[in-house]
Amino acid sequence: QGEYVILVTDDEYPANVQWTLEGYVVDGGAHDLRHLDFTTLESKEGCETPGGGAAYLMGGLRAEFYDTTFKRTSVANGNGGAVTVASDYDKMNVTDRSAAEFTRCTFEDFEADFYGQAAFSSISQLRLFDSHIAADPGMALEAGTIFDFGTASDCQSGCGPGMYGTCEPIDSCFSCDIGECSSCPIGTYCSDSGAVSVDQCLPCPIGTFSGVEGAAQCSTCPAGSFVTLLANDAEDGLGTNLGGEACVACPAGRESTESGSVLCHSCTAGASSSEGQPCISCSIGTYAQASGSAECYDCSSGKHAATAGSVECVTCGAGTFSTDGASSCMACTAGTESSGGASSCTACGEGEVSNAERSLCSPCDPGTEADGDECVECEAGDFNPEAGQSCRACEVGTTSTQSRSLSCSPCPYSFTTTREGSSECDGCIEGYYRDPTVTDETKCLRCPDNAYCAGDSIPGTTLLPVPLVGFWSNRSDVALVHYIHACPRGEEVCVGGLANVSDTAVEAQEVVARALCWLPENLTSDACTGDEILCSTGALGPLCGAVEKGEYYWSSLAKALEACPEEASGNQWLTVVLGAVAVMLAAVVYAFREAADDLLTRCAGTWYTTPAGGGGGALL
What is the model's pTM? Predict the structure, then answer.
């Protein structure tokens, strides 16, 4: 009782015996052996075994122990106060050796008379994983606590990759606080599990980094970035070779073209880069004067950069200009000039032209004017008396018959011009009119009596003589229209071709009514009949002597044109008859005053026809 010893010898069991230790039997029941406590013994001298106060493995046997506490174990006259693992000298092959593995096990209060106060291993495999070897209270573990002969024990923590245990070295082994793990610091890594010290967290190799604690491996820094320490200033692009803690994008103006870089190279002059990007040559129109430029700058106005990768901009020459960011200088256009380094071209002054190089403007001579980039002669009808001025049109009534004229000459009396800028006197002044029957020259005739001639004082007009009120002209032919006839019935029926226009600012003046109808080409048009232009409403025909049948009648008593009544009374018919007689008498008198043939040819002529509309006319 109280002797808990597992003994296996080569004489009793074959070499390949493997144990599954569940308990021991003394009373027909299984008992838990995961806690072997020998504290009930009065002394540590009760176990006289070949070795191993708790377990002895020999001859190729293998055993695994999990979550077991070995307490107060001892060996008298032997090795391995708690465990002995031994193999024969002739079984040096690893697969033939005895082996013992202890996972999350604790060894307390152990003693052996010879070697290995806690464990003894002879040419065998002793493995401790996340196991603790406790020293006596107030004491430190002595050398020889774990004794290895011919091999080294494999002692590890229970920590995974990137972690390390809280362990202390004991001989060639380690005692670890079970379940206690710490993360490897930033900038280090541990790829294997079972680390027992922070020393097993290795610095990240060159070009790699670990930015978090507990890294199982380091990451490679990609191109465009560099490996550095967190405490370093990343603005200079200079990193670290070992123990990289961060991968930082290269600052603007620097680059790294390969992964795993530990520094960023400055962009050369003529190139730039943004953060984390490769250096790119400055595009045309931009430049970078110094190395390490974060950006390329636009050439200022008046300069240009024609090639990519420029380190400076070239000043534009005279006669050219450029705006910001120009890749070339543009030539000034005709009529402008510039000196060197100009941002724009300056327009030549009025009357000036620029030279072929567009570097200087000069005024044009008298009699000429600037037209784009050359001086051209003033045309006939224009003049220019001063250098650097524009050609001006001769005023109405004056002409210049030659080009390059310095002045204009007035037209002879009665003549004028029909427009400004004329080279000939092709019109008549007011009070005269052009003979419409003469087409090969301008012939000015004095205006007939009782008519108004506007002449050509208004540019572009060629008006015929316009009868005054109380007078009439035959508009059936241009050859007859200048004959002006007095109307027997006077102003009541013949209104003339003028309209009185009053204005508070000027005196009443005569204005031609419906002026277009007094142009020769419109004389006989449908829109310009003589009745509408010269006769009052209801009057029509030669001398406006007829009336619209059934609508109007001439009242001899009232000396006026009146509308016909719906039912005429006896007195009204008497008035009509007397009026008719009076008109007939007036016509006879007029006929004797004017020769009959002249009346027929000049007055009636070919003009008089039945009025439009079929109503007919009646001379009453």
Answer: 0.51
